[in-house]
Amino acid sequence: MLKIVKAVIVFATLQDIVLARVAPDFIKACPAITPACLKKNIQDTLPAFIKGVPSLNIEPTDPLQLMVKDFEPQAGIKLSLDGRMTGIKTCIVDSAKYEKNILDIDLHCNITIKGKYQASGRILIVSINGDGDAKIKGNNIIVNARLKFEDQVRNGITYHVLKDTAVKHRFGDRVHFALTNLFKGNPEISNAVLTFLNENWKEVAHELGTPVVNLAVKRVLDIVKKLFTSVPKSELFP
To answer: Which of 113, 155, 183, 228 has the maximal Cβ count within 10 Å?
Structure first.
């Protein structure tokens, strides 16, 4: 009799382990994968997801640490940045559609980057030899992402893993630059260069901002990939 009781307890324990939910409670599956439900679910999930998911070893992403060393976003200029990006948790989901293992999502964000920078070289027609504080603010950064998934079975459990990504972005509104000491030891030239950067924000944002945004996007997508690799498909899709 004792053996039977032990067997029942072991079976019940194993069943609890098998049935244990992996996804955090704030992630809800849409009853039907409609654009309206996807948009709402992603928007509702975003703030909590950005805080991090310790159970899945997913770190917080707002603020997002950005560190680049001797980065060359274009020929003729070298950039180092040690800063933090904020604003991801307040991104607005404009649309979302899932069809044939492909998720298309459009959103827009107001992003601020603060930190320390070093830069040398030429941007557009001005020379820069700077080392100081940086604050870059971009409003209405529009992001269009296409995520391709495929099923992967591990230990008898199906996961809908991220296979490929394609992300585009554009700056919907102006980008404001506040950079100190753009020309070492010469405040007058530094201020003149800063004025030039802000007057030509579109070109500067494209040449300097785009690589930084791409780096941030890659960091976020790595975290999204970890989520889908860790959580069974049955918990994310009906």
So the answer is: 113
Give the C-alpha separation, 232 to 228, whole Å.
7
Q: Are 181 and 202 in contact (CB under 8 A)?
A: no
Domain boundaries, the chain: 27-236
Residue-wise pLDDT tens digits, 176-224: 999 999 999 899 999 999 999 999 999 999 888 888 888 888 888 999 9
C-beta neighbour count of 61 within 10 angstroms: 20
Amino acid at residue number 172: G
CA dist 6 → 2, 3, 16 (Å): 6, 5, 15
User: What does the chain come to in residues?
Assistant: 238
Q: Which residues are bridge partners to 37 per DSSP?
A: none
Nearest by Cα to 120 from 82, 84, 80: 80
Return the half-sphere exposure (C-beta side, CA atoms, 13 A cut-off) of residue 49.
20
pTM, two decimal places: 0.83
- Nearest by Cα to 201 from 230, 180, 181, 172: 172
Task: Give, in words, the CATH class of 27-236.
Answer: alpha beta
Q: Could you identify the residue written with the tokens 């941030």?
A: 216
User: For residue 111, with 0-12 CB atoms within 10 Å meaning exposed, 13-18 middle and 19 or more buried, which class applies?
Assistant: buried
What burial class does residue 212 get, using C-beta atoms within 10 Å of its C-beta: 0-12 exposed, 13-18 middle, 19+ buried?
Answer: buried
